[in-house]
Amino acid sequence: MADKITTHWKGGLTFESDNPSGKTVKMDTDIEGQTQRFGLSPKAMMLSSLAGCSALDVISILDKMKSKIEDFKIEVSGELTDEHPRFYHTVKVDYHFYGAEDEIKCKRAVQLSIDKYCGVMEMFRRFTDLETANHFH
User: Which InterPro entries match (predicted)?
Assistant: First the structure.
């Protein structure tokens, strides 16, 4: 089954996009001379999608492994090309675990997400150099 979204112009350079979940998100970009923003940057949302996809995997896998953590976050940074069309040529994904019961299980959950389950990660692999790292706090 194919996913379908609709993105609707809301005036200026602001758009609202729906999602098969029924939720919506506003998107816009920096406009010279304008300080107010109404939405999220489409390119940065790609990084959020990557983090969200992998985070869902990692937490689901840790739950199945019955491995407890106190907190978890993913930081993703991307380097854009200088020339248009600008795209992320390198992306770094940092997995941060806090109060991890078992670091080995955390590393395994991350590896499973990277290698097997995260479809967004696989899409990124098609056009960018990906680097990942685990951090335990």
Answer: KH_dom-like_a/b, OsmC/Ohr_fam, OsmC/Ohrsf
